[in-house]
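Worked problem 6 (solution included).
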Amino acid sequence: MVKPFSAIQLLAGVLQHLQRDASGEIIWGVITQELLRRTHSRLEEDEGIITQYAFTRGTKVAVLFKEVSASEVKMSFRSRGALDVGQFAHYISPGQGGGHQRAAGCTLQGTLPEVQERVIAALQEELQHQR
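Solution. The predicted structure is:
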């Protein structure tokens, strides 16, 4: 698939600032409104970004946070099977989230930092229960 240059710049911006939790089991990237402006991209150009880091060694769950506005964040989840992210998306965002065991998504209201903190903490708790 041929992608516009802006989509490649968006991918580079996300990969440059990837984060992992202390256990290394959760990895996440972020698309901010500022990154979209800087790369002249659109949120719709996020296709395939999460798959670039979802299978990093030691990772069980990957998240891509997408800042839709100052008060709304969309998320995409990928799992290597350790956690049913379809159920997790439905749990974290009832009526808004869903998918299947290895790929899911949802939308939450709140600022990007608030949503990130809430979702990462909930993922850590879910993974802790499975140990």
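Discussion: The mean pLDDT is 96.
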